[in-house]
Amino acid sequence: MSLRLGDIAPDFEQDSTEGKIRFHEWLGGSWGVLFSHPADFTPVCTTELGLTAKLHKEFARRNVKPIALSVDSLESHKEWVHDINETQHCTVTFPIIADPDRKVAKLYDMIHPNADETHTVRSLFIIDPDCKVRAMITYPASTGRNFNEILRVIDSLQLTDEHKVATPGNWRKGEDVVIVPSLQDEGEITERFPQGYRAVRHYLRITPDPDSNWSGD
Asked: Chain centroid to CA 127: how far?
């Protein structure tokens, strides 16, 4: 059965470049980004892992742990990490799961037979501290991921978990958000959004990002 949003991310135990991973234990109450790669020593994957390494501080300040996966062996992964560090001018500090038996790939439905019968597609799962799947993004093998979009989705999820808002199209952290339609009590709205809001329609109410640095006069 395919994973769906809100499902508990399947737990697993597997070898990685950082030792044996017991996934839920490894998450340890943090957010997680689990993303797959079709194979080691492939050009697009190498750039993606390099970008992930360079974004280490951005993930860390959001309390997010990245973890990659490929169906190749652990020894291959270790050799590949040297190449990534050298060609991408970075230091890979996150684990890469070795999944030669495709156990994890099958748990997360990462192999799409009509695209490739043996290798994973570029699946990515954003997982919250309760181990729930909160977002899934899948690219074909030939298309590299947009890491700005991944960070944007994480920012949106974390903001909307804390406040009764949703984020509009193309939203980025710090920009205006919308108040969720289910919130109708004006007293609660005033308490939650002291900076006020602009009603474009009764269902479309715009307010500043409640996490932005706002101060009244």
From this structure: 7
**Residue by residue, what is the 3-state secondary structure of 15-71?**
CEECECEEHHHHHCCCEEEEEEECCCCCHHHHHHHHHHHHCHHHHHHCCEEEEEEEC
Rounded Cα gap, residues 128 and 122, in angstroms: 20
Q: 114-148: per-residue pLDDT in tens?
A: 665 556 668 899 999 999 999 999 888 788 999 99
Task: Determine whether 131 is an active site residue.
Answer: no
| pLDDT score at 37 | 86
Residue boundaries of the structural domains of the chain: 13-146, 163-207
CATH fold for the domain made of 13-146: Glutaredoxin (3.40.30)
- State which H helix or E strand residue 176 sits in: none
In Å, what is the CA distance from 5 to each residue of 8, 124, 136, 185?
Answer: 9, 12, 8, 29
Residue among 9, 21, 45, 124 flagged as catalytic: 45
pLDDT band at 214 (very low <50, low <70, confident <90, very high): very low
Question: Is the separation of the CB atoms in 40 and 137 below 8 Å?
Answer: no
